[in-house]
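Homework help board

Subject: predicted structure for assignment chain

Our instructor gave us this sequence and asked us to write out the predicted structure in token form, then describe one feature. I got the tokens but I'm not sure how to describe them. Can anyone check?
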Amino acid sequence: MQKKTEIVTLRMTPQTKQKIKELAAEVHMTVTNYLCICALGKEIVRVDGLDTVLSELKAQGRNLNQLTTLANMGKLKVLRGDDLVDGYAKLYEQVNQLTKVVK
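My token output:
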């Protein structure tokens, strides 16, 4: 990523500034990034509920890693990880499909 070294100064009303800050916050972006993306004509796509899916995906991944570690250490004699792996794969596929729709 390139270092940001250039500064652009502009004047606006306090109401316009507040509205821009609100719009940037809605898409979880800084005002600088929001303005740059808008100025370059790029589309900002907001996907509601994605945080929940990603959180669950991370949790399933941690569970899978912990079980794998225990199995490799010999602390688990029987591991029925097929259901966990299938669940993780389904979540991953959902996220993958969402990214295809967004792009």
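Reply (TA_rk): Your tokens look well-formed. For the description, you could write something like this. The chain has a mean pLDDT of 84. That's the kind of observation they're looking for.
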